[in-house]
Design goal:
The protein is mostly beta strands and 120 residues long. The protein is 0% helix and 60% strand.
């Protein structure tokens, strides 16, 4: 099994910054991609940013230019640097890690979620 431990988050004023971290451990042969999603009450979980093992990144339009995703492949850790935060960024942020087996099978794992609240 794979365990994901998230850290960061909390309360921040609009315009401020927060950094999220997510470390994966356990039975990992390889990682295909890692990412961050967020969810607000009554809404579907949405992709915020993702990064592949090769370093390719993808961002939601609403966070481009403000958020930066990065990873440390040696530590199986993904980060999300969030700058210029807005109240609409308030959500529970979930880490996602997609592992790959020796035969190329992909499997998704999720963190427990961390609350980010941006006040006006």
């Amino acid at each position: 099994q794979v365990q994901l431990v998230e850290s960061g988050g909390g309360f921040v004023q609009a315009g401020g910054s927060v950094r999220l971290s997510c470390a994966a451990s356990g039975s990992i042969f390889g990682i295909n991609a890692m990412g961050w999603y967020r969810q607000t009450p009554g809404s579907q979980r949405e992709l915020v940013a993702a990064i592949t093992s090769g370093g390719n990144t993808n961002y939601a339009e609403s966070v481009k230019g403000r958020f930066t995703i990065s990873s440390d492949n040696a530590k199986n850790t993904v980060y999300l640097q969030m700058n210029s935060l807005k109240p609409e960024d308030t959500a529970v942020y979930y880490c996602n890690v997609q592992t790959k087996s020796r035969v190329g099978q992909l499997q998704d794992f999720w963190g427990q979620g961390t609350q980010v609240t941006v006040s006006v």
